[in-house]
Amino acid sequence: MKQATNYAEYLQINSLLNLQKSLSGSAGVKPCHDETLFIIVHQVYELLFKQILHELDSFVEEFSRPPVSENSLGYLVARLERVTQVEDLFIPLLEILETMSPMDFLEFRTLLVPASGFQSVQFRELEIKLGLYYRKGEKTVAAHVMRALNPEEQAKVSGFLATPSALALVEGWLERMPFIAAEHFDFWHEYEFAVLGMLAEERRLLARHSSQDPAAAQQLLQQWEETQLIFTSLFNADAYGVLQASGQRTLSQKATLGALFIFLYRHEAILHQPYRLLTALLTIDEKLTAWRYRHALMAHRLLGSKVGTGSSSGHQYLQKAAEHSRIFVDLFNLSTFLLPLSQLPKLPANLKKSLNFS
Amino acid sequence: MKQATNYAEYLQINSLLNLQKSLSGSAGVKPCHDETLFIIVHQVYELLFKQILHELDSFVEEFSRPPVSENSLGYLVARLERVTQVEDLFIPLLEILETMSPMDFLEFRTLLVPASGFQSVQFRELEIKLGLYYRKGEKTVAAHVMRALNPEEQAKVSGFLATPSALALVEGWLERMPFIAAEHFDFWHEYEFAVLGMLAEERRLLARHSSQDPAAAQQLLQQWEETQLIFTSLFNADAYGVLQASGQRTLSQKATLGALFIFLYRHEAILHQPYRLLTALLTIDEKLTAWRYRHALMAHRLLGSKVGTGSSSGHQYLQKAAEHSRIFVDLFNLSTFLLPLSQLPKLPANLKKSLNFS
Amino acid sequence: MKQATNYAEYLQINSLLNLQKSLSGSAGVKPCHDETLFIIVHQVYELLFKQILHELDSFVEEFSRPPVSENSLGYLVARLERVTQVEDLFIPLLEILETMSPMDFLEFRTLLVPASGFQSVQFRELEIKLGLYYRKGEKTVAAHVMRALNPEEQAKVSGFLATPSALALVEGWLERMPFIAAEHFDFWHEYEFAVLGMLAEERRLLARHSSQDPAAAQQLLQQWEETQLIFTSLFNADAYGVLQASGQRTLSQKATLGALFIFLYRHEAILHQPYRLLTALLTIDEKLTAWRYRHALMAHRLLGSKVGTGSSSGHQYLQKAAEHSRIFVDLFNLSTFLLPLSQLPKLPANLKKSLNFS
Amino acid sequence: MKQATNYAEYLQINSLLNLQKSLSGSAGVKPCHDETLFIIVHQVYELLFKQILHELDSFVEEFSRPPVSENSLGYLVARLERVTQVEDLFIPLLEILETMSPMDFLEFRTLLVPASGFQSVQFRELEIKLGLYYRKGEKTVAAHVMRALNPEEQAKVSGFLATPSALALVEGWLERMPFIAAEHFDFWHEYEFAVLGMLAEERRLLARHSSQDPAAAQQLLQQWEETQLIFTSLFNADAYGVLQASGQRTLSQKATLGALFIFLYRHEAILHQPYRLLTALLTIDEKLTAWRYRHALMAHRLLGSKVGTGSSSGHQYLQKAAEHSRIFVDLFNLSTFLLPLSQLPKLPANLKKSLNFS
């Protein structure tokens, strides 16, 4: 017979509440009041990271065993959406930490040197498992990341590169989508034609509304030309290869077409979950990026232009990192190639047939 | 020379991330995916409770050594306001837990019996330190609370009654306010007169607008009479004693007048922080109450009318508990006796003088 | 050629920003500073109500033309989930309003009499369209609601009863679910058997853990018996009729079985969207209820035990109304009858076949 | 006798709910479902901007009539803190808008050209009244802003430059602080000495921990030298002038010292409200910046690399604008010069005396 369960034992509360040891108080002196806040907020973040990794791992595991069944898509999407809800706590947690004034932080800041959030192994795991290095095409963890870690941590973090990332697995899954097979060539041709029409229309709009300011008009025109170029590359393997080589695109041409098809025909029953899945990944990335940026603002507020405890060069570095650490950028860029419903090519019957319930 | 600090050691990350042991997985079987969520969300709550208790303890300590200096009021208010920000995570955390479906919860629910949130010692500490039992005039912890605990926990929880609660200390602090001293009798007399005028005006409004529905009008009239009665008691020790005896009021007559004065003349510089302090206590209580109610809804959603794991009788019980566990109700009720600025008696010169910076 | 669009004209900004007329300032006197806040917060609520109604109307329209296609389920679910996100602004908006102190409110409160949130026609529309009166089995709008309205508003509000509510339409949709047809009798029989087993197990748990306190044990036993009774009624038209007659259940027996099936077998691809849909309705209701309760706390804070401007009898009334106005209670109660996956009857082949993509 | 007030009339509900005219539906065609969302979300933003401007105007008005009394500081701080709570709705509102998919936006996007959020006069007013142009030392509104507006709007927006901004007024208020007067020269001398000590300590820490990586060490050293330089300038009018001339600082030397004093001695009773005021301004700016950045991410998500409806060059432009539009940067930078309590010079008796209640 099972032993009766006790709340405190089950959740290991006594151990949990015994893990907040202030450095400022160790010398017989009363610890700084706000160091407790500092510790607890960071521990809450680590617990939340663990939860996110738990969801992500189940996603990676399932996507590593193709084909991914319809049934499992249902709960995997729910888990990714749960991740976005967990992320919703990230900025409020920062704002709780910001109730500590810069002066109160100063009281114990030097004791922490050179400890730094840079040393969070779980956060590095999260970045890597989402696909940060896959996106950048790198095979090793960045030197400035490794430098902050001790050898044991370095080994762990490097190890995360061995598992395929969410981004890599999603790419494979998109490439396997049946609707991008060669037999549907005509369909894609029709789509290409429609987008070219839309781009021509945008060109006309630019001409009409930008005439007041020649310099600005010139710049917009140039931007339009880039868009046109990028779009053409979707159907030209060589041109697409150039984009990939320059780091402007990560996902393969085939995977990009797969994602595009899901976005465009998301109303078809069989695409409901795939569309939700891509959207959840977009949102996970977006919230992570917004949090990084917000974190840079907090660093500025707490430290001014002081150097961070982990010797990072402070808030300006952090701010740029927000942009450089985005992972699912290709999904954001997809919107460049969308069409309004009214201009969308009708699906051929054989394709349509495969997209609904029996 | 101080040892260089490492993030993981400082925050005891390895220990922290080792405290999530699923019951559902112990038998060689793969644990239920969502049990991790269940554990982590509860652990985050306990960390947040610890933070709140940390702030509350510093408040209790300072208020236990009167007089409370102007200087310390400043940071104590900031700490109470921080508590309200921590509470802002409570409902979002519940909503994250609710991403677990009732069916997923069922997978491991029976393993938890009879563990229950009822056994959170820190939550009981929080209730007691805020003043739950002081408000109810009880000298012992409620039997249904004790029943859920083991002897060691019972001893701990009973022990919290030994320290004065925030409510009790605030009462003492309010009673010491100089402006309610006997020498200011005339001022209070004038105030009484003004409120009676306002009540008479309300009476007229009732008469004018309620005529359409005699039954409703009758009820409102009765309510008005009660208000009138309660107000009169503010200046009549015997009548006030009756309210206290019946549990309608906790704070002493003197403390109530003190709080009222702070609300009414909050614009005076010396009352800025006292007003913020009372407001923060109100808000702490309000958010706690809203969370309890929301928790009852979650219980209903997860369990239907099933009995809770700790054998509580479920969501209806929890719902009522939200109302019965409010602590600073007297501060909410204060609004009954407020006056618009235009009808507020001018402060006598000697009182006014004491309320500003030199 | 289309006229170029201007932001201010498109959004009618000038008109919008011209709709905030303070009553407190009309007499040549400077208006109360916080009356603007009061007006704007209420106007934002009304805009958000309009948005919610817009989504709800599209749901009602589509569900009024059965059969509801798989394709439309996809976007209808997204719209209901959007409603829950809009509701997430409701409590923060209240908290912004609460930054107005009770004293500041008093400055203009009497000018508002007898205006009241009770007179929000859109809010009544929302309640009615969700199914408040359908749930209560009433054919007319409650007298205390009508009393607050002028004849024109009364006509409008009564008119909303003419359209079928979301609750009524969902009931019909659930009743049409193929898997509750008579041919699946054996399946339901097996399910009944499994739940009875679970209930017996719960009975054993109760016996084991409640022995310390005979009175509490007695109460829990009684509660268990009620659960048993309610469950049995699911398969007994007469017993179920009794529950409906007493107001304990709204949804028909058939619809309840349909919802139960969706909850239990939600992992099957064809049930992904139906499960999300029921969950979204639950959440809409839950957030609305939590907001009503929070609103009652605000009323207490702002008014104490004063009578509301619309002559409602104040916060206690509002608090009870939160519970009485819940609409999808039957969906909350469903959890009573769920089974863990391990005890769930296998789906018969013919049923299973119909639940997946071709 | 006052006319009885009606909710709908008071809040002008009928007019309010009549301001949502879809462009997509004007041609006899059914309007796009999500255009309503687009309109309502923008209208809610405009209402919230109006509320923020209402608070800001009261601040500007009061600060334009020095000296600012202690009493009014109390409610002005509360109003600025209210602004931060209103800003808390900004990102959730964006996220509600993001429930509209890029494809749904495409359906009506071209109809909006060239309308754009760039044309929000209230948002320009907000930027200007906070002090955007004061910080940049510009005397006219930026050309790219003006270009988007019609002549009437241009006149309005230029007009906002005529009123002193919050930033300018706060600078004046800080300069008037008594504790930076010449008679306190010795105190500031002592403070300078203490900070130099702290900087020397930081220098030692850098040397100890950065030895592993010469390049990084070099960079940090350089950053440290800049900090040292900037700090020295606080007490050297010429050096400070150089910082101002290069746009690295906006606030005058005197105002900066005033703000620094408030941060350092915030525990003194008379500085409670000034400290809260500066903190509120910091937070207002921080939340505005975080929202701008988040808005850039949304633009990327909705449009990819398409050109914005107002012909802005899209999300990259918006992202940089977040950084360039920060207004109270000097307050963020203050943290560079703070000292821990333990190293803080004791206040001279004559200064200390003036900082407390009589």
Please describe the structure with a list of short key phrases separated by commas or semicolons:
358 residues; homotetramer; mainly alpha; 65% helix; Methane Monooxygenase Hydroxylase, Chain G, domain 1
Domain count of chain A: 1
Separate helix tally of chain A: 19
Structural class of chain A: mainly alpha
Strand content of chain A: under 5%
Q: Any idea of the CATH topology of chain A?
A: Methane Monooxygenase Hydroxylase, Chain G, domain 1
The separation of the N and C termini of chain A measures 47 Å
- Biggest interface found: A-D, 66 and 65 residues
Under the CATH scheme, the architecture of chain A is Up-down Bundle
Order of helices and strands of chain A: HHHHHHHHHHHHHHHHHHH
Give the averaged pLDDT of chain A, no decimals.
88
- Using the CA coordinates, give the radius of gyration of chain A: 25 Å
- Which CATH class of chain A applies here? Mainly Alpha
For the biggest sheet of chain A, the summary is: none
Give the helix proportion of chain A (percent range): 55-70%
Which runs of chain A of at least 5 residues are low in confidence (pLDDT < 50)?
none
> Any idea what the shape of chain A is?
globular
Oligomer: homotetramer
What is the number of beta strands of chain A?
A: 0
